[in-house]
Amino acid sequence: MIARISGKIIERGNGFIILDTGSMCYQVLIPQAVMQNLEENVPLDGPVSLITYHYYQVEPSRSIPVLIGFLNEIEKEFFEAFITVSGIGPRAAVRAIDKPISLIAQAIDEANIEFLKSLPGIGQQRAKEIIAKLQNKVGKFGLIQDGGRKDLATGTRDIQEEAMAVLAQLEYKKSEAQAMIKKALERSPGIETTEALLNEVYKQRKLK
User: Fold this and answer.
1) 157 band by pLDDT with thresholds 50, 70 and 90
2) Parallel, antiparallel, or unpaired: how do β-strands 4-13 and 47-59 relate?
3) pLDDT given at position 154
4) Is-contact 7 26, C-beta < 8 A?
5) Please, which residues bridge with residue 29 across strands?
6) Assign residue 111 a region: left if phi > 0, alpha if psi is -120 to 50, beta otherwise?
7) Which of 4, 20, 52, 145 would suit a FRET pair with 75, their CA atoms being 20 to 30 Å apart?
8) What is residue 130's predicted lDDT score, i.e. its pLDDT?
9) Exposure pattern of 68-94 as b/e (b: 16+ CB <10 Å)?
10) d(Cα 208, Cα 204) in Å, to the nearest integer?
């Protein structure tokens, strides 16, 4: 299983890049939300290291290996959550995630069917299924600083450390992350899991 791939971007297309690893060239599918960050930060012919989701697309007469690329583990984790929704496979998810992940997470949290329907390939029924499956489970993805929403609004030591690690991946400063976690724990002292803590951090950011 290919977990990461590094190389030089030699071609960009609609929803994919071609990556030259030195001895081989790979096609890597890229969700538009990730592609936008890639285009802003990595020039054509520039080096890049991607975290990958690797699977086999099974057809009647063949099995095709497919790589989907992400810039960090948080993006990949959101993608993996998204494909747990019935009827959304990896390729459909790549196509659908064409807006900033923070906005999609916010729409799920707020049960915003109209926004979800605006995603490619997502109709009314699928939007309802996404909300039913993922609502109240995507708070930390709403904290991603991807240009989507810039004004988003006592656990154990292990929970706090895990939450700090996630916020660090999301590029929050240590002091800012500590303050957000402290405020979340003051608001909800009964929090027992990292996911619940990050959801509370997300909720308090939305109130700002």
Assistant:
1) low
2) antiparallel
3) 35
4) yes
5) 16, 68
6) left
7) 20
8) 97
9) bbbbeebbbbbbebbbebeebebbbbb
10) 7
Mean pLDDT on 112-141: 94
Mean pLDDT of the chain: 89
Look up tokens 């899991």; give the residue.
Answer: 193
Q: DSSP states of 162-184 as a string?
A: HHHHHHHHTT--HHHHHHHHHHH
- SS3 (DSSP) at 11: strand
Does the pTM surpass 0.85? The reply is: no
Helix, strand, coil percentages, rounded to 5, for the chain? 45, 20, 35
Task: Please count the other Cβ atoms lying within 10 Å of the Cβ belonging to residue 24.
Answer: 9
Superfamily for domain range 4-70: Nucleic acid-binding proteins (2.40.50.140)
Domain 73-142 in CATH: superfamily?
5' to 3' exonuclease, C-terminal subdomain (1.10.150.20)
- Please report, for the chain, the start and end positions of each structural domain, with discontinuous segments joined by +: 4-70, 73-142, 153-206
